[in-house]
């Protein structure tokens, strides 16, 4: 992909303080975009901006909780007034809650629905409205079907893979996939692209920061460490996911499974739903 691909573009990335969000911020900055790095952890977002500046890009850090409707309204308004309407928005911030549905309490559901689903809803509707009002364009791309802008929502292979180990997580990611498909249909006439990116396992901090229900504190620590080790063993770096995100924007892709297990699960969900139901019985974590 050309290093001048996003010259002059303004990109917003949520959850940009680590994992896929930081890698995506850097991949976009490397191709000429100005990156707004948003995260609930201000210091982490600021570190990302320092890294984008080392690449010669301009950027700014914002502290925002994507689950907080008022904070997201304020953030979207601040992006427009401090900068302008963004050309690219990557709704990436997400958390993991794993463990059986029968042990998943209302607070656990509210937390994961807040970040993984409401965060994507807020980011999509607030910035899509701005893009529609602007009615213009990714700089220098008048021939592109996503000339009016592009929204990327980070779902997961869990969106098409039911799992007894991750009922709350899978539910939020399936919803993000459907939301993205609906929004893509709605915005196509405005020349605004929407992509759902569905990665399999990748070595980020998600399991370290995650919640495991149905076990005591010691069990939770042990299982977090084990899940984190498994992600590292998979050895699929977030930078590769970021490259797929860049490619998805450039090519205006609708749904992008990332890495081998995501492709296999995506294909099986279409041709062999019975096999997916068998896989759903395996008590293993899926990010
Ligand atoms: N790592 C994987 O294997 C994997 C696989 C598929 C999908 N995903 C998805 O990728 C996305 C990024 O996850 P990651 O793996 O990079 O995780 P990560 O934990 O490494 O990074 C997530 C970032 O989001 C931030 N964040 C968390 N809650 C927030 C909130 N309420 N508001 C704003 N920022 C918040 C964190 O501070 C952190 O910087 C998530 O949506 C996740 O569900 C991850």
Automatic annotation (TrEMBL):
Stored Pfam families: adh_short
Keywords (alphabetical) are: Oxidoreductase
Which domain of life does the UniProt lineage start with? Bacteria
Entry's InterPro entries? Answer: NAD(P)-bd_dom_sf, Sc_DH/Rdtase_CS, SDR_fam
Matching CDD domains: SDR_c
- GO MF, one example: oxidoreductase activity
Family of the protein in this entry: Belongs to the short-chain dehydrogenases/reductases (SDR) family.
PANTHER family named in the record:
OXIDOREDUCTASE EPHD-RELATED, RETINOL DEHYDROGENASE-RELATED
Q: What name appears for this protein in its UniProt entry?
A: SDR family NAD(P)-dependent oxidoreductase
């Amino acid at each position: 992909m050309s290093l001048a691909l996003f010259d002059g573009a303004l990109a917003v990335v949520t959850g940009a303080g680590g994992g896929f969000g930081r890698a995506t911020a850097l991949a976009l900055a490397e191709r000429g975009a100005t990156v707004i790095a948003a995260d609930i952890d201000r210091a982490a977002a600021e570190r990302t901006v320092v890294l984008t500046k080392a690449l010669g890009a301009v950027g700014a850090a914002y502290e925002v909780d994507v689950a907080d409707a008022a904070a997201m309204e304020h953030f979207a308004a601040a992006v427009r007034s401090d900068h302008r309407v963004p050309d690219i928005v990557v709704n990436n911030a997400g958390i993991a809650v794993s463990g059986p549905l029968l042990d998943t309490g209302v607070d656990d559901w509210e937390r994961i629905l807040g970040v993984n689903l409401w965060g994507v809803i807020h980011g999509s509707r607030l910035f899509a409205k701005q893009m529609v009002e602007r009615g213009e364009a990714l700089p220098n791309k008048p021939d592109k079907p996503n000339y009016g802008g592009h929204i990327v929502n980070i779902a997961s292979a869990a969106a098409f893979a039911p799992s007894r180990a991750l009922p709350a997580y899978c539910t939020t990611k399936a919803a993000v996939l459907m939301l993205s498909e609906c929004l893509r249909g709605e915005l196509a006439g405005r020349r605004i692209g929407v992509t759902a990116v569905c990665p399999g396992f990748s070595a980020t901090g998600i399991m370290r920061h995650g919640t495991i229900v149905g076990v005591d504190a010691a069990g939770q620590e042990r299982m977090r460490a084990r899940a984190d080790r498994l992600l590292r063993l998979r050895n699929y770096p977030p930078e590769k996911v970021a490259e797929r995100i860049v490619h998805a924007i450039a090519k205006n892709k609708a749904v992008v499974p990332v890495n081998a297990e995501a492709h296999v699960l995506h294909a099986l969900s279409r041709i062999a739903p019975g096999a997916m139901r068998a896989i759903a019985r395996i008590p293993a974590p899926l990010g």
